[in-house]
DNA sequence: ACAATTTTTTAGCTTTGTCTAAATTTATTT
DNA sequence: AAATAAATTTAGACAAAGCTAAAAAATTGT
């Protein structure tokens, strides 16, 4: 990630991350109001911050035209996301937090400044490639394998892939998955889909099971043989 | 530690911790200039902050009379110190940092807000009683065993105790200790002391060794049969 | 085309934590 | 007991990050 040789405040880092995520959704330039909503602040505060980030060449900004990350800004975003997701892995794998409890704490931990820390944490965790929600962890240079993850409900019959994420991370849903022996990292094959109600039969490590459309639209598979 | 039900900023927490440490050294009330030096700020900034902490009943303060922690303030200090030292244990035991590298990062990590996090970290580390520098870790209620630790150079012949800390945490010194099979947690017995140069013969797990006065005045033993 | 609505920016104010310079209080010397 | 020195506080400013209310620009509807 080539570290960034200028100091960034916690708030600046969160803005950069928000802009990154918003531009993933909509590729074009990001609207002031969208950032305000994401950051739970007012549009006027966003305008002020965006000007500051523009001064530091982290974003490209023209009045009334929205904002987009510069290459420098993109690398900063990925460095923060890397830290966020590594900490999430730590919280789940080492401290036995559950998937849905880790976000808030990771939101704080991602701002700890120490390159040595994050390198050693990465090693301690065995250089994980995805976080507990199945999202990819960028490496030090900001590269990551764009998981071509798709919802089971959107995949054709006979697709096969690794379960890498959930859409709904509520406790209820996670409990359901546990009970049905569905876990991140498992490989599933889609055997059949009912026209009638969209329910899907999948092959899991404990055999074939039937899941409802609702479940199918909340589980991401990473397809093995694509790109 | 009963958590504190009011929000504290990072800066307030660092001030409270500084005041705690300074009042350990000198028991009386702490001087504005002393805090300024510790915090690397100006005395006028300290006055402002101390007024604010006084508003929140964390310190007792009278103009020109110095400042001391209230009971509430003392508990806050101990809660931060607990976090600081647990993170130090984590960095050394789990991430393979060395003793002298952990302070700066722990200085940041101590401010992460999450009771669940610190409980689970404590458990993950096996409920350690001392940090990598031999300093005691307060429990959740703010209690800790005041280690009656003394320098080897200050202990009488035939004293016996567990090596719990170092005075000098320079890399050179730590390397020396490694080479001579001296580690925290080891039990030593003082066999003899030379009047001539103050050098001391101690019994270690690999037999009796002779250490210079300089070394003896940098190693703390916790005496077993006291209090 | 132009009025109405929505989005975005500006202006001005607030809080936190810092600073410098000046004033005040306390401590130390003669 | 002054006079001097040191420690502490006050006054006034500043940067960061937020807010509200008002102005300006862009978009939408007719
Ligand atoms: Mn954050
Ligand atoms: Mn995640
Ligand atoms: Mn700190
Ligand atoms: Mn320590």
From TrEMBL, chains A, B:
Keyword DNA-binding recorded? yes
Q: Look up the record and report any one GO term of the cellular component aspect.
A: cytoplasm
UniProt cross-references to Gene3D superfamilies, sorted A to Z? 2.30.30.90, Iron dependent repressor, metal binding and dimerisation domain (1.10.60.10), Winged helix-like DNA-binding domain superfamily/Winged helix DNA-binding domain (1.10.10.10)
For this UniProt record, the keywords arranged alphabetically read as follows:
Activator, Cytoplasm, DNA-binding, Manganese, Repressor, Transcription, Transcription regulation
Where is this protein found? Cytoplasm
* Gene Ontology molecular function terms on file: DNA binding; DNA-binding transcription factor activity; protein dimerization activity; transition metal ion binding
A family per Pfam: Fe_dep_repr_C
List the PROSITE patterns hit by this protein, alphabetically: HTH_DTXR
Domain HTH dtxR-type, chain residue ranges per copy:
8-70
Q: Which InterPro entries match?
A: DtxR_MntR_Metal-Reg, Fe-transptr_FeoA-like, Fe_dep_repressor, Fe_dep_repressor_sf, FeoA_core_dom, HTH_DTXR, Iron_dep_repressor, WH-like_DNA-bd_sf
The keyword Kinase is assigned to this record: no
Subunit architecture: Homodimer.
The record's function comment reads: In the presence of manganese, represses expression of mntH and mntS. Up-regulates expression of mntP.
Q: Which family does it belong to?
A: Belongs to the DtxR/MntR family.
List the protein's name. Answer: Transcriptional regulator MntR
Organism listed in the record: Maribacter orientalis
């Amino acid at each position: 990630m080539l570290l960034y040789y200028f100091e960034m405040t916690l708030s600046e880092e969160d803005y950069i991350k928000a802009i990154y995520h918003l531009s993933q959704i909509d590729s074009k330039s990001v609207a002031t109001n969208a950032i305000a909503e994401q950051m739970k602040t007012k549009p006027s505060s966003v305008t002020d911050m965006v000007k500051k980030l523009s001064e530091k060449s982290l974003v490209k900004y023209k009045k009334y035209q929205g904002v987009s990350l510069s290459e420098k800004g993109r690398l900063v975003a990925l460095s923060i996301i890397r830290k966020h997701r590594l900490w999430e892995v730590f919280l789940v794998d080492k401290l036995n937090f559950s998937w849905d409890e880790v976000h808030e704490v990771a939101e704080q931990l991602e701002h700890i400044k120490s390159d040595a820390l994050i390198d050693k944490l990465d090693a301690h965790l065995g250089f994980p490639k995805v976080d507990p929600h199945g999202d990819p962890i960028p490496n030090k240079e900001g590269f990551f394998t764009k998981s071509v993850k798709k919802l089971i409900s959107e995949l054709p019959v006979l697709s096969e892939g690794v379960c890498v994420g959930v859409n709904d991370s509520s406790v209820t849903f996670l409990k359901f998955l546990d009970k049905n022996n569905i876990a991140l990292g498992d490989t599933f094959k889609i055997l059949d889909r009912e026209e009638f109600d969209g329910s899907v039969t999948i092959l899991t490590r404990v055999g074939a099971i039937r899941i409802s459309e609702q479940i199918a639209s909340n589980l991401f598979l990473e397809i093995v043989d694509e790109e």
